[in-house]
Amino acid sequence: MTFSYKAKDKTGQRVEGTVEANDRMAALRQVEKLGLIPISIGTGEAGASPATHSKPSATGHTLLFRRKRMKTHEVLTFSTELSDLLAAGMTLGNALSTLGARKTGSTADDVIRDLRDQIVQGTNLSDAMARHPTAFPPLYVSMIKVGEASGSLSEIMTRLVEHYERIQDLKEKVVMALVYPAIVLFMGVATMVFSMVFVIPKFSAIFLELGSTLPLPTRMLIAMSEGMLKYGWLFIGLMVAAVVLIQRAIRTVKGRRRWHILQLKLPFIRQIVSASTYAGFARTLSTLLTNGVPVLQALTIVEQTVGNVIIAGEIRNARDRVTDGTSISGPLAAGKVFPPLMIDMLAIGEQTGDMAGALKHVAHRYESELSRNVKIFTTALEPILIVVVAVLVGFVAVSIVMAVFNITSGLGV
Predict the structure, then answer these.
(1) Residues with Cβ < 8 Å from 367, sequence gap 6 or more?
(2) Do domains 55-136 and 138-413 have the same CATH topology?
(3) Residue 389, SS3 per DSSP
């Protein structure tokens, strides 16, 4: 059976031709053996219209895959493995077939197999990835398009891996720094709940039998314990309802805006959020510009991935001004949200013609500032939590000891 194909060679030039094969998969393998990157495979002579399924339709099957979600570490693992296979000389179709043959039991299996099937049907990798927006964000898809257009997909994959490894490192720094304070807080709350539910009621029964007048702290402690036993379920229900309502409010446009404004105003939190956002903005924009993405398209992608609607709004306004022919640093400075140091470094990059290099310096500077701010925050948070837990546990202990002394002194012991 004769199959026509459209493909790209190693220089990025489009080529067309025909191959003889038993089925579409075999035809794809023959095209890849020629050292070409397949774009479409169809039946008939070269130049004929591609097969109808070279462009996937928005069927229920497609919508189902849109709901498939890959975790961040799964995307990073997939990108690393695909980059390694491509760098080793394996063709895209064979690399995806190798990765798709694995069975890890996660959602990533279905996504990778769908990518493989779409490539076999003649779809571009970027179009196949665009079917999974929850797994591959606009930044990822745009850079893959650049790699396909330039014929340097392997190099682009390597840069994507480096970019997402840096982003993952920033997230892990914040998470790891908060682990110890979270453990301290959890143990303190668990100790208080255990005392209120199991310890205080037993002492309360003993004090009631002795019939002595208890000190005020002890009476307060017993009242708190009784309240927790009687209305604890109501308190938990109210807490859960409050969390759900807050989450729903944050999902709205107004709620998300208010939440992000609050993040930029709270002490300690403000420094961490702003440094993380500026570092992500600079790193992402630098990566896009380095790989040949046009400025306006790069700003659009950064706006979607920056993570804070206030700063995203300023990027959108700057993009509109850039459309009018002005520089990037000027429009960003007009919003008075971005710090002067960043604006000055961007202006220098524009003057020297090395905007991507200037953005890398900005990213490195704010990544260092983020690490320093996280360290300051956790250093201040740890003793505060320890003091709070000590005060709560100390209140329970002192209240019980005061009651014991009061009773024993009344008995003349």
Answers:
(1) 166, 170, 275, 279, 283
(2) yes
(3) helix
Rounded-to-integer distance, Cα 242 and Cα 245, Å: 5
Query: Quick one: pLDDT at residue 58?
Result: 41
CA gyration radius, the chain: 30
Question: Domain 55-136 has what CATH class?
Answer: mainly alpha
From CA 361, how far away is CA 386, in angstroms rounded?
38
Position 241 scores a pLDDT of 94
> What was the pLDDT predicted at 65?
47
| Among the listed residues 78, 118, 126, 125, the one whose alpha carbon sits nearest the alpha carbon of residue 99 | 78
- Residues ≥6 apart with Cβ < 8 Å to 341: 365
Structure-block tokens of residue 143:
């850079």
The pLDDT score that the predictor gives to residue 130 is 86
Rounded to whole angstroms, the Cα distance separating 41 from 121 reads 6
**Secondary element (H or E) of residue 18:** strand 14-20
The fold of 138-413 is Receptor-associated Protein (1.20.81)
Q: Residue 381: how many CB atoms within 10 A of its CB?
A: 18
Cβ(100)–Cβ(74) below 8 Å: no
Among 275, 295, 269, residue whose Cα is nearest residue 356: 295
Q: Give long-range contacts, CB 8 A cutoff, 24+ apart: 295-301.
A: 295/322, 295/328, 296/322, 296/323, 297/142, 299/328, 300/138, 301/138, 301/139, 301/142
Q: What is the pTM of this model?
A: 0.65
Q: How confident is the chain (413 residues) per 10-residue block, as mean pLDDT?
A: 74 74 74 70 52 40 52 83 85 84 77 85 85 83 81 81 79 78 84 86 81 81 87 88 90 88 85 86 84 81 83 85 71 82 87 86 88 83 85 87 78 53
The confidence score (pLDDT) of residue 62 equals 45
Domain ranges of the chain: 2-51, 55-136, 138-413
